[in-house]
Structures are given as C-alpha cells and as structure tokens.
Inverse folding.
C-alpha cells in the first residue's frame, strides 16, 4: 500500500494578531462589521465542504479549513473591494458558495480570507421571451428552481446537492444534474458570466455564447474552481416546466448490451431527459432502496419530458424498441416514477454514509469506444486495491450520457475505516489512486462533474501532461500572478507559478 497524501501540507499564511485585526477592520469598512469573523469563530462558522476528506480531518482535530478571517458579501462591488484588500496585502482568498462539494475544493487550506458568497443571491432579471435569467452566484439551486416554477419556468440543473449547491459553485466545479442527458451539464446552461478578478476588476462577459468575437472567455471560468476569478453572476438558459413525462424501466442480461442500447438511443436522435443504467451491485444494493418492486439485475431507467405528448410518445417508443433490439426487457412500470420521486434517497439518512465509514465517488467519463474498458478496469482495480478484510464495496451506474460517450459513477465504501487518521487516509488514497490511474490507462478522463478539489489534484499532471499543466499555469499567472485566488487548488501555489 502507498503512503497517504498529506492534505494539510500546504503552509498557511502567518498573520499576526495585529495584522488580523487590521484586515478585519478593512473588511468591515468594505462590507459590514456584523459580516466579518476572525480566527476560531471564522473557522467554526465555515468548517469546509461536504467531502469525506473534510469530515475525517475535522474529526481528528486537523481541519482543512484554516482561514484567518471570513467575510460574507452581498454585492459584486463588495467582492471587488475584498479582492482589492487581499491584493494590497498579498493574502489568499477562498470563495465559498453552498459548501456542497465532495472533493475538498472549498477548504481554505492556505489560510487567509474565506469569502462567503451565500448572501449574493438575487435574481436580477428574467427574460421570458428569450428564456434566460441572470442570477447571482450565491443563489442555492433548489430555491432558485422553486421560484421559477411559480411562473411556469425551470432551470433544469437538478443535482443531488440542489438544496445546498449554489449556482455559482455549480459553474465553478462544472457540476451536472440528473437531467443532463437532455439539457446538458452546467456549462451548457451558461450564456454569460460576471467575474471579479484577483485585482478586484469586474469583468462582464458578452451576453451570448459562441459569438464570433474572439475566443470564448466565458467558459474559461467554468471548472476553474475559483482559481482564475470569482463568479458573481450567471446568465443561464431556462425552460418551460415540462407538461408531460414518460418513464421506461428495463432489465438487461449483460452490462454491455445495456450500454449499447444507451449508445444507440443517444446517437439515433432520441432525447431522454434521464437515462440511468445500474450494474447488478448498484441495482440490487442501492436502487432497491428507492423503488418498491424488487430488482435482481442490470437495470435501466429512462425518462422523457417536454410540452408535446405526441413527440414524447414517439421518443419513448423509439427508446423502447432500441432497448428490446439489444436484449432489454420491460420491468414493472412503477419503477420509473418511484425512482423519480425517491431519486435523492441515497443522499439522506439512513442511506447517506458517515464516519467511521470511508466513502468516495470516482466518476469518470469516456467515449463509447472506451467506456466499457473504463468500467471494467476501474471495477477490477478498486475491488483489489485494499485488503479484503476492510469489506470495500463498489456499486456503479452510468448516470450521464452524451452523443459521443457516457460516464461511470462508482460509489466506493469501506464500512468502517481504521481509528488512525493516517491509516484511514492511506486506504482512501489507495483506491482513489487505483481508480484514477485505471481510468487514464483505459482511455478515460478522471472526472465527469464533481470537480478536482483536493482529492484529484495530485493526478492532474497524469491527465493533462507537462505541456497541458504548463498552459494552465500560464493562464493562472496572467490572471492571478500572486496566486491569491483559491491558493493550493488545481495545484496552483506561489512556488509552482514562480
């Protein structure tokens, strides 16, 4: 077994008591004193994100969140003012949205200022003719969707973390939702961004994407995890609330036949809003918790939605025909609607994991030529990565589909980890390393939509190569030469940029 990664290795800035007080005073003058916190109070208020790495380090008294100060902002101008203070003093800033991330990205491991965007949550404009909306970055996804639903509209980004995730955080981590197969992943929803740069400059991107005026700057910030700029507002695409939904639930005798059915559905012009394909372990040990009829093997759930019943009926019939041609057979008709109503069951007690368990989702994506190889490789190496006495389980489903490929969503759990932090980290890092390197060897990409954070940062060079990392460092130097923003994330530190 390999040595565990030291996730606390980054050296935080060393602020004296007098410096901390002086900076707090400057932040209070730029915002309000009641929205500025220091020291232990700041860290207690913002303990980090929802990753296992955050929880386990806090449990053992070695928190990853080590900010010296925290400030909650209510406007883009306040964000700009905070960044001007940080730039003048050379202090790192970590933006914080809803804190729903599972990779550790929102932890202020290098100290400095934690910038809470949660009160930057207004809906600035809704254009009912163009079906667009400009919303501030701190708006939480579920309340945003609820507000839109009252006027018959929808923002079809439905992540499992919708009640915690912010819209801006979803862009910064390139999140994805359950409806992505039809409506796209988060960056597909984005038309324009308002961004505050490291020096405090406020930049408004062009109002529409894919224009012919130079490179696409808007998408540069999608997936940047706060390292290139702080997203303060987003113009997103909206949809009408669907008038109709149709569900299919099908069983397959082999995983390969179900994947082939999914490939054909995506490449033969059917447009399912949802297509989830569970391997046998996931179907019998996870999916069964959400639906009443007992499931015994590989299971696919498909949902079509829209405004026009005849179109939805035609797409549903086409998908059923394709599945049956690939050996699929219809299951109980209640499974699909039950899954839709209970689709987030897995993320709440008693099903949600908790310490002393070790858990992780190693989502990976590949084109259709490689996706089965990625599944086979990851499933094999993860199962063999740790001593069998730890009882590791891996349950996988294919949750997001594209017209060029799909992704696997393996849930890895060790029922009870060691009582020692370093030993627990060693087990965690062992299966993460195994899954990551197996994905790359099989022709896949190491993440689909959970972001990089702290968990995958050590493997970015394996993914991008030296030249790719050099290009990313060049962009970082141009936008944030002092490495103030999200210091330590995506491998960006002052030493690396020097």
């Amino acid at each position: 077994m390999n040595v565990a990664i030291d996730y606390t290795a980054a050296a935080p800035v060393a602020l004296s008591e007098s410096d901390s007080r002086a900076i707090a005073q400057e932040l209070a003058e730029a915002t309000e004193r009641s929205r500025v916190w220091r020291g232990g109070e700041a860290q207690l208020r913002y303990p980090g994100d929802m990753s296992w790495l955050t929880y386990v380090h806090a449990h053992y008294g070695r928190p990853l969140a080590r900010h010296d100060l925290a400030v909650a902002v209510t406007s883009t101008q306040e964000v700009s003012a905070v960044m001007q203070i940080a730039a003048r003093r050379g202090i790192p800033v970590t933006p914080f949205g809803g804190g729903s991330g599972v990779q550790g990205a929102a932890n202020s491991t290098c100290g400095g200022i934690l910038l809470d965007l949660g009160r930057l949550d207004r809906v600035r404009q809704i254009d009912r003719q163009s079906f667009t909306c400009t919303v501030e970055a701190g708006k939480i996804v579920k309340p945003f969707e609820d507000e839109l639903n009252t006027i018959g509209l929808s923002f079809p980004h439905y992540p499992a973390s919708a009640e915690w995730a912010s819209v801006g955080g979803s862009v910064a981590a390139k999140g994805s939702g359950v409806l992505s197969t039809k409506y796209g992943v988060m960056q597909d929803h984005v038309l324009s961004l308002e961004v505050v740069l490291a020096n405090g400059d406020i930049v408004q991107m062009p109002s529409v994407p894919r224009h012919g005026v130079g490179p696409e700057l808007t998408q540069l910030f999608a997936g940047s995890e706060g390292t290139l700029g702080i997203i303060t507002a987003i113009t997103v695409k909206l949809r009408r609330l669907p008038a109709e939904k149709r569900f299919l639930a099908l069983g397959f005798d082999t995983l390969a036949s179900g994947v082939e059915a999914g490939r054909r559905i995506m490449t033969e012009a059917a447009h399912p809003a949802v297509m989830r394909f569970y391997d046998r372990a996931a179907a019998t040990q996870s999916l069964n918790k959400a639906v009443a009829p007992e499931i015994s093997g590989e299971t696919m759930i498909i949902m079509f939605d829209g405004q026009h019943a005849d179109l939805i009926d035609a797409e549903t019939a086409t998908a059923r025909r394709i599945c049956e041609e690939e050996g699929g057979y219809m299951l109980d008709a209640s499974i699909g609607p039950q899954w839709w109503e209970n689709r987030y069951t897995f993320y709440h007690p008693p099903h949600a994991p908790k310490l002393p368990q070790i858990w992780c989702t190693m989502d990976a994506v590949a084109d259709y030529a490689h996706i089965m190889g990625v599944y086979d490789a990851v499933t094999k190496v993860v199962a063999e990565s740790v001593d069998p006495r730890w009882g590791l389980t891996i349950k996988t489903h294919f949750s997001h589909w594209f017209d060029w490929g799909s992704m696997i969503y393996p849930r890895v759990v060790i029922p009870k980890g060691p009582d020692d932090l370093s030993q627990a980290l060693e087990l965690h890092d062992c299966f993460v390393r195994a899954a990551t390197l197996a994905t790359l060897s099989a022709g896949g990409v190491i993440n689909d939509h959970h972001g990089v954070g702290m968990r995958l940062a050590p493997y970015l060079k394996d993914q991008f190569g030296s030249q790719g990392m050099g290009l990313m460092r060049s962009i970082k130097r141009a936008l944030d030469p002092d490495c103030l923003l999200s210091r330590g994330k995506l491998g960006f530190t002052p030493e690396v940029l020097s």
